[in-house]
Amino acid sequence: MSGQQRPRNTQQRRSQRVNREKKARGASMVGTRFEVEVGNIAHGGFCIARVPVGDDTRVVFVRHSLPGETAVIEITEGTEGDRFWRADAVEILTASADRVEAPCAVAGPGLCGGCDFQHVKPAAQRALKTAVVREQLLRIAKLDPADPLVANLVVEDCSGGDRELKRGLRWRTRTTFVGLPGAPGRKGLRKYRSNDVIEVDDCLITAPATADDSGLVTRTVEASAGTRDFQVASDGFWQVHPNAPRVLVDAVLEQLQPQPGEKALDLYAGVGLFAAYLAEAVGDGGKVVAIEGDAAAVQNAKRNLGMWRHASAVAGGVAEVLKEEYDEPFDLVVLDPPREGAKQAVVAQIVDRAPRAVSYVACDPAALARDVALFAEMGYRLTALRAFDLFPMTHHVECVAQFTRRDVS
Ligand SMILES: C[S@@+](CC[C@H](N)C(=O)[O-])C[C@H]1O[C@@H](n2cnc3c(N)ncnc32)[C@H](O)[C@@H]1O
């Protein structure tokens, strides 16, 4: 379509707008190479580098690199006018002592987008994640670097001594493969920030026996507070790392210290993992309410909590159910929201119930940091923090944060 032609439909209008914006941002930088010194790790699995552009510098988010390395990077996204570019490290000139040969043959520039840290020793991966969690808490939640919760934070190894898990391999109990276009029967995974698929016959972070995809599956959790079975839809939410349920239940119970007779909320409850352990601990003089948005998960939570009359599972959005059905005090709250975090409305609802302790299971440290700031504004201090390496080889990290009302010692 020429510049003079009027766009005929929304798609053409959008593509005209995108072209105009691209022109304003200058020529594409994709494919351009620079030699850089790689700086700190950032949230998202890349390191920060800067390249000179005229009198200015440009920030570049570099994958497949490590802090302190010198490397040749190749720009993968960005135009001359953009404030930052994305790049892959395509040649390492001075390697970090933390660098290893990636165990996976499809990890690396332009290949599978599933892992970020295949080229990093497992212990060093945890150190990178520790740095990211700290940085988010300092920058977003404005915590003091000298605060022992920040200064002493260490992302914990969750392999439990298993040889493959210790190497960061064979931990994913669920992986969604996609069909390889034009090759029936062959499968793959998507490239980084792309819809292109790369063939992956054997994903090394995927556990050998993954769930089949029909009906219910039984998951057994052996936590310190006892062994329990849970019914989960095979396509429903369940913690992906085999040790995650145990590790998270132990951390949450350690933070909440539930007592007989107490009232507890399990928010974003899934099939009632935390609610079940809380129900046992508070006993029939107490009360546990699990709130979950996914109807199938709620049906399974009802089954999983069925043996306790003082425990119930309720379907609906957390903010709405709390407001409409549970506008009453609770002693304890555990929440495990999706990546975007709990946000203002839910934090305010939690604080309104005046719990003596809150345990917050967070899969995104930036969202956690935003919610730490909200809790602080509303009178709840961050009083304990643990972080777990439940997603080895990727930049993801799980945190469990305890908040305590300021007037509770
Ligand atoms: C990270 S999972 C946690 C599940 C559970 N705590 C567990 O460990 O198995 C988050 C859950 O929140 C649910 N969810 C997401 N947004 C919600 C909302 N606004 N209200 C209620 N549940 C929600 C999802 O369906 C999902 O089951």
Automatic annotation (TrEMBL):
Keywords assigned by UniProt, alphabetized: Methyltransferase, S-adenosyl-L-methionine, Transferase
Residues that coordinate or bind S-adenosyl-L-methionine: 239, 268, 292, 336
Organism name: Nocardioides jejuensis
UniProt keyword Methyltransferase present: yes
Active-site annotation: 363
Family stated for the protein in its record: Belongs to the class I-like SAM-binding methyltransferase superfamily. RNA M5U methyltransferase family.
GO biological process annotation, one example: rRNA base methylation
Organism superkingdom: Bacteria
Protein known as: Class I SAM-dependent RNA methyltransferase
The TRAM domain, residue ranges: 27-91
Annotated InterPro entries: MeTrfase_TrmA_CS, NA-bd_OB-fold, SAM-dependent_MTases_sf, Small_mtfrase_dom, TRAM_dom, U5_MeTrfase_fam
Lineage summary: Bacteria, Bacillati, Actinomycetota, Actinomycetes, Propionibacteriales
Compositionally biased tracts (Basic residues): 14-25
Biased composition (Polar residues): 1-13
Stretches the record annotates as Disordered: 1-26
